[in-house]
Amino acid sequence: MKRVQRAAIILLLAPLTFPIPLLADGHPSAKIKAAAVQVDMIQDDEIQLPAEFKVALYENLVRQLEKRGFSPVYRDGDRRAPGVADLVVLHSTVLGFKAGSERARQVTTVSGATSIKIHCRFTRLDGTNLFEQDIEGKVRFWGANLKATYDFAKKAAQVTSQHFTSSANAQ
Hints:
Blueprint: H1 2-13, E1 32-34, E2 36-39, H2 51-67, E3 73-75, E4 87-98, H3 102-107, E5 114-124, E6 129-139, H4 147-163, E7 164-166, H5 167-170
Parallel strand pairs: 1-7, 2-3, 2-4
Antiparallel strand pairs: 4-5, 5-6
């Protein structure tokens, strides 16, 4: 009975945006081993992003994952990636985009925010689903509109490091 109560407390205290994977007995599981991460191209089929946002999202995501200690980080189409044993593939799909106004942000802090919401799905190379989460990048007060892509990449790298452990970090 006490084990169930502890598991319930852990679930209540866990932030809703970062679900904790649980083992069958209700205890939090260990991080999933990732020898490398492959970042697939950002999919924006339903919501068309401006080209500069799409490129900035991808490049910032690769840089932030490398900063978090994931090495190597493979780009979409890299022929070396399929040979990696514990490869984790990050698929990203744009769910929402609101282009803000840098000028409006300078005049007032109430309007002009830029936001981008992306569904991130982590899988093995064979398509086995490991983890999914929606992540939002924003720029509200100061900065260029593209800063929302940096905010997203930073949050996505944080989520990745919370759920996956790099071989480089494990040593």
